[in-house]
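User: I'm writing a tutorial on reading structure tokens. Could you give me a worked example: one chain, its sequence, then its tokens, then a sentence or two explaining what the tokens reveal?
Assistant: Sure. Here is the example chain.
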Amino acid sequence: MLGPLEQEIETKLDVPLSVKPDEILGKLEEILKQEGWEIILSRNDEKELLYYDTPDFSFYWEGSTLRRVTPFDPSKFKGSVRYDFKQGKQESRTEIKYWSDRILKPSEIVDALQIDAKYPRISSVAMVLITPEFREIRKNGTDIELKLDTCWIDGEDKFRELELELKQGNSANIKNLSDKIAQRLNLGYLHQQKYSRVVEVMNLLTGRSYENE
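And here are its predicted structure tokens:
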């Protein structure tokens, strides 16, 4: 099931691996309380991300991302597997999603996402385990999803990111809150997609392939 084209409005902060998740989450909750944000929901949700690219790594060079995300409970979502295709720069990034009840072959993925005309050949290149902590927060009609991602590759934690994504409301609020978090926790902004970091961590441009389907 192909979803509509959506625009992502988000910010990303780089969190050192030396900072433990519980430590930064505790500090974040203090900041949110001080700034008048209400935590609506807290949850964690471990996922596997399988990234795809073309033979010449077009997605990496363009700053795009094509990935498979599993697992999902089909009784709560549109399927058990979700495919995401993201394009554009961070401030104007768009995303399209495709839900399926089964694992698709690469040729089926490009057909399902309707990108086969430009990217007819893809293959899987990297598998990443993420162990995110979610906080859904609200203030004066603005809803933001705050997510602390720890990314594991080949059984080791490689990098950690804090993402703030606007769900509804005033987009200025997400930048304002991000600036306060960055300043108080001494975190730098990230302008690189997760997939780009994975490629560089795994040295994929040297020709290494994680998996062939």
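What the tokens reveal: The chain is about 25% helix and 40% strand. The longest strand covers residues 156-168.
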